[in-house]
Amino acid sequence: MSGTKFGSFARLCKDSPLPWCNLFIRQISRHAPSILLPPSSDLTSAPVGFNPPCAINRIHHPSTFEGGGGRSDGNVALIVSCVFCFIWVLFLITRVSHRSAAVGRIEFRTFLLLYALSLPLQILTSSSLLSQSSLPLVVLTSLHAGLVVSLFFVLLWFGIVSTQWIDDGSLSSVIPMYTISSALFILTTYISLDIALSITSTFGPSDPPQDLLSIPLFVLTQIWPAAATLIYFGIMLWVILHVLQEIPPVWYFVLSLAIFVLAQLDFYILSRTICQGTKAKIDGAFIATLLNTLSIAILYLGWTHITEESWDDEVYRPYEGPPQPPNSIGL
């Protein structure tokens, strides 16, 4: 059955507004345009997705969903939620920067910075603002994919340095983190561009075309984030329960993971239902974005409960010599 093969994006692109679908629309429009059905067949107004039964058409173009009517406003809810979350994450970055003695401060701040950068890209790749199959959309989607893959590596690295096996903020932590995350960014971006533009025959086109098949992209954007997240939370539970031997902070991390899982369920399972229920006005992407950001905010709270905010003043107090005996008048 089409779309059930490992590495296939067909079912995902039909039921959810997954930005990586933009890459395959460009590929199919060049190699097998006949399999594109409405609303995907009209590339000037096509939404995010591959032959979706319900989706938000490109801004200022007529809605093709039955009962939708009028012209599409794009995914306004997603745009608003991304802007709100971007501002909130910037606030979290400033709070993290002020915790000078906290373990993993630089690594966590890098994670938040990458997440903040992903939000404007999400607006551009998932809000039906740019024409499908256009080169700008393909390039931005490829950069978005690379950023997301790097983001989850930094999250995993943040968990590793939390064990204190590597000195957080030191060159032994920062250099590997930036080197590997940059390599993943470049690799994923290249694979994404190759899928869309057929630069080589290594990563495309999909065979058969309707399967939207790419095992490397599937592993990097679907399997890797889930694996990195589970490993990170496993490490943090070990640190809290085994090393710190505390119970209360565990609930912050459990709640953060639960909300993250809910965000994925909303995005991949409920998007189609929400779209149909609102006559193609909104989908599950904006709720998933809010939940992802809430998950990170709770993660920040958990981190603050297991780290120190600042160094003890005694650490920086200069040596003043041995204590002096009291003088004759008792002063």
Automatic annotation (TrEMBL):
Top-level taxon of origin: Eukaryota
The keyword Cell membrane is annotated on this UniProt entry: no
Positions of transmembrane segments: 76-94, 106-125, 137-160, 180-203, 215-244, 250-270, 282-303
Keyword set, alphabetical order: Membrane, Transmembrane, Transmembrane helix
A Pfam family the protein falls into: Chs7
UniProt GO molecular function: unfolded protein binding
Record bears the keyword Transmembrane: yes
Gene Ontology BP terms: protein folding
Cellular component per GO, a single term: endoplasmic reticulum membrane
InterPro entries xref list: Chs7
PANTHER family per the UniProt record, alphabetical: CHITIN SYNTHASE EXPORT CHAPERONE (PTHR35329:SF1)
Protein name per Swiss-Prot or TrEMBL: Uncharacterized protein
Species this chain originates from: Sistotremastrum niveocremeum HHB9708
Organism lineage: Eukaryota, Fungi, Dikarya, Basidiomycota, Agaricomycotina
